[in-house]
Amino acid sequence: MIIGGVWTSVCVMFPALDAKAEGFKVYAVIDASGDPSEMASRTTLARFTQAGVIPISANAVICEMHRTWNRPDAAQLAELYFMVSPNYRAVMESYNKAQEVARQQKK
What we know:
By secondary structure, the protein is mainly alpha-helical. It is 63% helix and 7% strand.
């Protein structure tokens, strides 16, 4: 189960702990949630770890679902990466250009 929410210490914490108690493998998307203070975030993260809830980032969730670029919806997945990490678009453009140049040199 993947959970994100407004406040990590409340909106994520309570359903995450309940789901873990029910036997689910639970991932808490830390950067898709927030807290009113750094202390609240730190104590929540510690509590997650103690309870067996797995802290994860939004980018890691996308990557785990993605797995490979060799799939029909790769372009749509790239758009998700661009939202999470806008600089990733530059990486993709650079890679695509390098591939284009390599193909041209083979001709």
